[in-house]
Amino acid sequence: MAKIKPFEKYSNKYEDWFTRNRYVYETEINIIKEALPEFSNAIEIGVGSGRFAKPLGITKGLEPSKKMAEIARGRGISVTEGIAEDIPFGDAGFDLVLMVTTLCFLDDVEKAFSEVFRILEPGGYFINGFVDKNSRLGEIYQEIKHENVFYEEANFYSVDEVKEYLIKPGFMDFSFSQTIFKDIDDINEIEKVKKGYGLGSFVVISAKKP
């Protein structure tokens, strides 16, 4: 069952996070932008309120929360309501699928990634940005998850675990980048991007459908 309750109830709090953590948000936009290939037909799975799709030039989204979908539509995103484990689109229809901080809210990662693989055309890319479970921020989120309205039901994953989930449906040609090297409260400018993983808390994996 989709974990939408906090997003329905605390949409204003969700939106406020991006305002209060402006440089963290801009850092995440920046690293994803660097990882994006050229695309002509892209969709963000778990588009939320459109905070990432909009500045990245992605005009389509899938979202289970009606409240989040409503806000995203207000930002000009064409949103279809649905879940990642049962994407309501045909095979091979997109050349890019984006997923940002949605991974930890999935009910079935293996099924969701299989669905992403299905809707991508051959040669298409899956770009996934998430908080690494083994990072400093990942450890903090796990420690306080029962005190956080959004992360109470979240499940965090390491980069190696995510890679294994990507291999199962057939993704290949992986590349990794990382950012967010400080505690969130200490970030007062856009953080740099480094290749690989293991140092930064926010990791972006690019994977290709052969």
Largest sheet: 8 strands, mixed
For the CA atoms, what is the radius of gyration?
16 Å
State which percent range the strand residues make up: 15-25%
Distance between the termini: 31 Å
Strand order of the largest sheet: 3-2-1-4-5-8-6-7
Helix proportion: 25-40%
Shape: globular
Count of extended strands? 8
Q: Which consecutive residue ranges, at least 5 long each, have pLDDT under 50?
A: none
Number of helices: 8
Q: H/E element string?
A: HHHEHEHEEHEHHEEE
Which secondary-structure class do the elements indicate? alpha/beta
Mean pLDDT metric? 95
Task: Outline the structure in words.
- With 210 residues, the chain is of the alpha/beta class.
- An 8-stranded mixed β-sheet has the order 3-2-1-4-5-8-6-7, sandwiched between helices.
- It contains 8 helices and 8 strands; from the N terminus they run H-H-H-E-H-E-H-E-E-H-E-H-H-E-E-E.
- The two termini are 31 Å apart.
Entry keywords:
single chain; 210 residues; alpha/beta; 8-stranded mixed sheet; 34% helix; globular
Note the topology.
Layout: H1 5-9, H2 11-20, H3 22-35, E1 42-45, H4 53-56, E2 60-63, H5 66-74, E3 78-81, E4 94-100, H6 109-119, E5 120-131, H7 136-144, H8 159-167, E6 172-179, E7 194-195, E8 202-208
